Every structure is written in structure tokens, then in C-alpha cells.
UniProtKB/TrEMBL annotation:
Transmembrane parts of this sequence: none
GO molecular function, a single term: L-ascorbic acid binding
PROSITE patterns in the record: FE2OG_OXY (PS51471)
Keyword annotations: Iron, Metal-binding, Oxidoreductase, Vitamin C
Name of this protein: Fe2OG dioxygenase domain-containing protein
Domain of life: Eukaryota
Domain Fe2OG dioxygenase: 206-306
Taxon lineage: Eukaryota, Viridiplantae, Streptophyta, Embryophyta, Tracheophyta
Family that this chain belongs to: Belongs to the iron/ascorbate-dependent oxidoreductase family.
Length: 357
């Protein structure tokens, strides 16, 4: 079932970042200061000349435009590993109202939000990302994390009942985003020229997890990260940026590029499973979130995974003709056991999955 069913013995309590932000401090506590990023944010080049690719899903589905749009998708996956999806089929009404409900949730007093607080050693609920040591640097971010699919895995004790319509909108949002994920998987397979049916079926019963990120203003934004650089452990993550302030950045050719929010678009970024299935033709990009000193930013991020017994590994069509598989094949469940193991050891999980030639 992925991470949700696993227990963590090594999580430590973390301060609530929204409360810290409300204290109007002049400097941030030392645990948030990242010496490694000082100044880096200022070196981001002007991204006007290199915007993250834009993919039109209605063209992918239209025989007249499909071939060209598939080529664009393939290049976007190869060159960036991240792109913005438009005409994805989700209604503006659902996107707008889900964002509104999520914002209202975060605006509730802490005691109220804490009714749905993470439980010790558990993964879901309202709180912060799990940390393993007192020395670990902290992200300038609070979150609400919920499993939405398979439906029988929902832990409703963590689904807020306030604001009253949040549950209903999350339910609708997650059904629709699941459909986007299934459609995208089909085109992903077409772009790679691999058999897509089994993969799409694996998403029908797939694991979907929604993480609502809350990045409050920070007195020293250049010293912290909203979310440290990482790759996603999923096939792909689908992100709805609920703010107009850019915060998401992706690493490409040694530079960090902002992914500028486009109203109504969904940002799709490839995770490690996509890298493995494509036998390294596509790479899961490193990305991170930065913050600023005046605006709150909220994102709703859905991690999309095939069902837990699905074998993730290089597609057979891509390992014929003298090209050896570059990655092991493991089930989704095995992947997450390896993920936890490698996190404890401090090594990237993908390194334990690479086959050295
Ligand atoms: C994530 C993520 C970026 C953002 O939650 O995995 O990359 O901008 N979020 O919130
Ligand atoms: Ni991510």
C-alpha cells in the first residue's frame, strides 16, 4: 500500500510553521537555516526564455493533433521531466472550490486543525514531513496528507470535517485527478512506444495520496526551503498551484527554474517509477519549493502509483535489442520497503535500484 501502512519509529516532533510565521520573528530558528542554499535562490536565471513545457491533453486525445503532441510530451519527459497540463478534463469549479476549502482549512485555529493531527509514527493527517534526527534541517511548510485511493484505504479519522465541504471536494477532486492520471499513463506509454494497457489497469486500482502543502511567509526566505530538493516516489505527481506566487522550482542542466503557475493548469512531474519503466530514457527531476516574505502559497499535490503488487521496472520493449535493463524490477510494496531502508541509511533509493553494468 505504499508508505501509509508502514509505521515509523523514528519520527520526531516538529514546530508548526504557520504558528512560527504568525510570531513575526525577525530571524528563523536555526533548525530551518540551510547553509547549503544561501544565495542559491538569487542565482536562478531569468526563466522567460525557457518556460517549462506546456502539454495540451485535448490534443493528445485528438487523432488530428495526437502525433505532434505526443512528440512534445516525449521531449518534455526527456528534457525536463516536468510539464504543465492544460485541457486535462478537470472542471474549473472543482479546482477552484477544492483550493478554497483547503485554504479555509489552513486558516482555522491550530487547536481546530489539530483535531486531524498526525499520530505519532503515522504518515497521514495534519502536521509536518517526518524527520529522523534532531540535526535534520526542517522545511518551511505544514501539510495535510491523506490517502484517497484505493477508497478502502482511506483513513477518515484524518479527513477534516471543517470546513464542512472539504471532504466532499477532496472526494470529487481525487476521483477526477485519478482519471487524469490514467489518461496521462496511456499517453506516457504511447510516447515511449510501450504497451500501456497493463499499466493503465494498474492505476485503476492504484494508490493515490494527496498532500496539501501550506507555505506561510518567512522573514528570511533566502535562508530556508519550503520543501527541500527531492525526487518523487511515484509514477508521477500532479500538482495544483493554488497561488499566483511562484514557489516550485525544477533543476535542469544545473539551474533551478521556476514553474510559473498558470490558471487552471496542472503541473505533472515524473517520479522514480517513470524513470524505471522508461529504463532511464526519462528522469525523475529534482525539484524543491522556495518561499517568500509576504505571500502564503498553497499547493495540492497528488502522488499517483500503480497498485501495490504491480511490478515496476524497465518495460520489455525498451530492453530488447541489446539494451540491458538499467534498473531492477520490484513491486510497489518492495519499493517502499527499500525506500525506508535507504532513508535510514541516507542513500537515494534509486541508487539501490540501479543495476551496475
Ligand atoms: C511535493 C512537491 C512542491 C510544491 O509535495 O512532492 O514537490 O511546490 N511539492 O508544493
Ligand atoms: Ni515533489
Amino acid at each position: 500500500m505504499g508508505l501509509e501502512s508502514k509505521k515509523f519509529e523514528w519520527t520526531l516532533p516538529v514546530p508548526n510553521v504557520q504558528e512560527l510565521s504568525n510570531q513575526q520573528l525577525e530571524t528563523v530558528p536555526a533548525r530551518f537555516v540551510r547553509d547549503d542554499v544561501c544565495g542559491v535562490i538569487n542565482t536562478v536565471p531569468s526563466d522567460d526564455c525557457l518556460p517549462v513545457p506546456l502539454i495540451d491533453m485535448s490534443k493528445l486525445a485528438n487523432p488530428e493533433f495526437q502525433e505532434l503532441e505526443l512528440q512534445k510530451l516525449h521531449s518534455a519527459c526527456k528534457d525536463w521531466g516536468i510539464f504543465q497540463l492544460i485541457n486535462h478534463g478537470m472542471s474549473d469549479e472543482i479546482l477552484r472550490n477544492t483550493s478554497k476549502e483547503v485554504l479555509e482549512f489552513f486558516q482555522l485555529p491550530l487547536t481546530e486543525k489539530n483535531r486531524w493531527k498526525q499520530k505519532p509514527g503515522r504518515f497521514e493527517g495534519y502536521g509536518q514531513i517526518l524527520v529522523a534526527s534532531e540535526e535534520a534541517k526542517l522545511d518551511w511548510n505544514d501539510m495535510l496528507l491523506l490517502t484517497t485511493h484505493p477508497i478502502q484505504n482511506r483513513e477518515l479519522e484524518f479527513w477534516p470535517e471543517n470546513p464542512p465541504k472539504l471532504r466532499e471536494y477532496l472526494d470529487k477532486y481525487s476521483e477526477d485527478i485519478k482519471q487524469v492520471a490514467i489518461n496521462l499513463t496511456r499517453f506516457f506509454a504511447m510516447g515511449l512506444a510501450i504497451e500501456g494497457q497493463e499499466l493503465c489497469e494498474a492505476f485503476q486500482e492504484g494508490g493515490f495520496r494527496v498532500k496539501m502543502n501550506y507555505y506561510p511567509p518567512c522573514p528570511q526566505p533566502e535562508k530556508v526551503l519550503g520543501l527541500k530538493q527531492h525526487t518523487d516516489s511515484s509514477m508521477f505527481n500532479l500538482l495544483l498551484d493554488c497561488s499566483i506566487t511562484p514557489g516550485l522550482q525544477v533543476l535542469k542542466d544545473g539551474h533551478w527554474y521556476f514553474v510559473k503557475p498558470i490558471d487552471g493548469a496542472i503541473v505533472a512531474n515524473l517520479g522514480l517509477f517513470a524513470e524505471m519503466v522508461s529504463n532511464g530514457i526519462y528522469k525523475a527531476p529534482l525539484h524543491r519549493a522556495v518561499v517568500n516574505n509576504s505571500q502564503t502559497r498553497i499547493s495540492i499535490v497528488t502522488a499517483c502509483l500503480p497498485n501495490s503488487s504491480f511490478n515496476v521496472g524497465p518495460a520489455k520493449e525498451l530492453t530488447k535489442a541489446g539494451t540491458p535493463p538499467l534498473y531492477k524490477t520490484v513491486t510497489v510494496d518492495e519499493f517502499f520497503s527499500m525506500f525506508l531502508q535507504s532513508k535510514k541509511l541516507g542513500v537515494p533509493v534509486i541508487d539501490t535500484l540501479k543495476i551496475s553494468c
